[in-house]
Design goal:
By secondary structure, the protein is of the alpha/beta class. The protein has one domain (about 5-220): Alpha/Beta hydrolase fold, catalytic domain (Rossmann fold), CATH 3.40.50. The protein is built from 10 helices and 6 strands; from the N terminus they run H-E-H-E-H-E-H-H-H-H-E-H-E-H-H-E. The chain has helices at about 5-10, 30-45, 55-65, 85-95, 95-105, 115-125, 130-140, 170-180, 195, 200-210; strands at about 15, 50-55, 75, 155-160, 180-185, 220. Helix 2 packs across helix 3 (about 55-65), helix 4 runs antiparallel to helix 7 (about 130-140) and helix 5 crosses helix 6.
Length: about 220
């Protein structure tokens, strides 16, 4: 559901349902999710993949890129080399999951976003078990690649919304400064869920990046 507006545009892309999203149990470390993605790509025999990751998915994608330096391309969306979580979010998830979903959804978009998108984001979060969502945020809180993200060698596109409150533009700027072969696109008027809020601008940026790659590959979006 995160990538529904991209699946329409990039018809050959593979959108990955991570464990627990929404069925089954999730993980509490980024490394466990990376191992799942590695097995997913291997089992699907996706050759020359271009990995696209948003937020926690970006943490997964950049860790994958560090472990698999021959990755064809990398797209990091609304993410950072460090993803510290406000303790109030973890507390709210444990105390009142429905209220937490509304809060997180509101923080995930710009102040001018259509309320229908906010409501949809909150509803979709409730389809995931609270313990899985808690584990995701805990995994993000423990995540840190500030000291080795510069070792990513594949071509990289970094995208963020100008109004992102969860992973502000400075997070993307840090990635751009550290990753040598990277491009950065800031989409005006978009928040954290930039690929939903401003999908046309996002898809255009991704199209341009894919066109710049010398080898076309299969996209796996997380």
């Amino acid at each position: 559901m995160t990538w529904r507006l991209q699946k329409v545009h990039f018809r050959d892309a593979v959108a990955v349902d991570l464990p627990g999203h929404p069925q089954g149990s999730g993980y509490s470390t980024i490394e466990d999710y990376v191992e799942f993605i590695e097995k997913f790509i291997e089992n699907r025999a996706l050759s020359s993949p271009i990995l696209v990751g948003h937020s926690m998915g970006g943490a997964i994608a950049m860790t994958y890129a560090l472990r698999n330096p021959k990755l064809t391309g990398l797209v990091l969306v609304g993410t950072g080399a460090r993803l510290r979580v406000d303790p109030s979010i973890l507390t709210k998830i444990g105390e009142n999951y429905e209220e937490a979903s509304k809060l997180i959804a509101a923080w995930s978009v710009s102040s001018t976003c259509d309320t229908a998108i906010v409501d949809r984001l909150a509803t979709e979060m409730l389809n995931v078990a609270p313990q899985v969502t808690y584990g995701d945020f805990a995994a993000c809180d423990k995540f840190g690649r500030m000291n080795d993200v510069e070792n990513i060698t594949c071509k990289t596109l970094i995208v963020c919304g100008s109004d992102d409150r969860l992973t502000p533009v400075k997070y993307s700027q840090y990635l751009h400064d550290k990753i040598k072969d990277s491009q950065m696109v800031v989409i005006p008027g978009a928040g954290h869920s930039v690929m939903l809020e401003k999908h046309r601008a996002f898809n255009e940026a991704l199209d341009t990046f894919l066109g710049s790659l010398s080898v076309s590959g299969s996209a796996a979006e997380t």
